[in-house]
Write a structure and sequence with these properties.
Layout (H helix, E strand, L loop, with lengths): L1 H46 L4 H24 L7 H4 L4 H37 L12 H30 L6 H5 L2
Helix pairs in contact: 1-2, 1-5, 2-5, 4-5
Length: about 180
Amino acid sequence: MKAVVAVLEPVARLFESINEWTGRAVSWLSLFMVLVTFTVVVLRYVFDLGWIWLQESVTFMHGALFLVGAAYTLKHGGHVRVDIFFQRFSIKRQAWVDMLGSLLLLMPVCLFIFAVSWDYVVQSWSLREGSREAGGLDGVYLFKSLILVMAWLLLMQGVATVIRSLLRLFGQADDIEAQGNG
């Protein structure tokens, strides 16, 4: 069992550290969104100026924040769940719920999103898709690629959750548990 833990735990730690890093990095977009939105409002109402690309940048940042930050939010338990029941469960029952939820719901949905989005993103890249608006942002294809990034990051977090749940179920989660939540 120790050999299995020695292999699985570093995988979970790696996936969680990737999601931690990406989540913290993308969180800065919320500050930039506020600043850019403030700038758009001041330019429009004080100076009677406006640029489509500046307004679109807020939409792109907002989408990127949610797409790339979803796995970070999952890692930290920020997604909606029925906590009224879950918090009353034993540690082992919580592990079962997390593991089965990841295996039966999260991972299949991530794989489905990845599969159905692949051609959509590839087509966007082949066209080097840009904004439909005159004066809008180029690089829409880069933004659409974040759909695949989101699916991949959530899938990695699902794998980490399954590993952590298995370690809890088999009583191997002692101090590993603390490392997974930081």
